[in-house]
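F.,

This is the one I mentioned.
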């Protein structure tokens, strides 16, 4: 009996923005809209905090680089993956039912 490999669900949205600048705060708003799309409540401030923590892990002190955020639906939440300069980190943001 063979087992099937577990695959991650496809990203709902992938967005790349400069690490620093005016566009990064928009990513928290995108996360809140995705939560709304999933028929769940999402807190923009909570997403902003999670995104800031991810940015610090994958792009500490990086000036002009771009950071890519991918959003996936996860059990009871939203899984956010950040990639920058060969580093990757993720966080699960719970969403109320």
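My design for it:
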């Amino acid at each position: 009996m063979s087992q099937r490999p577990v695959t991650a669900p496809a990203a709902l949205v992938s967005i790349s923005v400069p690490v620093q600048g005016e566009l990064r705060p928009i990513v928290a708003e995108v996360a809140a809209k995705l939560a709304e799309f999933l028929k769940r409540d999402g807190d923009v401030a909570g997403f902003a905090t999670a995104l800031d923590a991810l940015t610090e892990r994958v792009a500490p002190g990086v000036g002009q680089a771009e950071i890519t955020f991918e959003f996936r639906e996860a059990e009871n939440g939203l899984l956010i993956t950040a990639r920058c300069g060969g580093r990757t980190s993720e966080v699960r943001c719970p969403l109320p039912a």
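The longest strand covers residues 66-74.

Talk soon.
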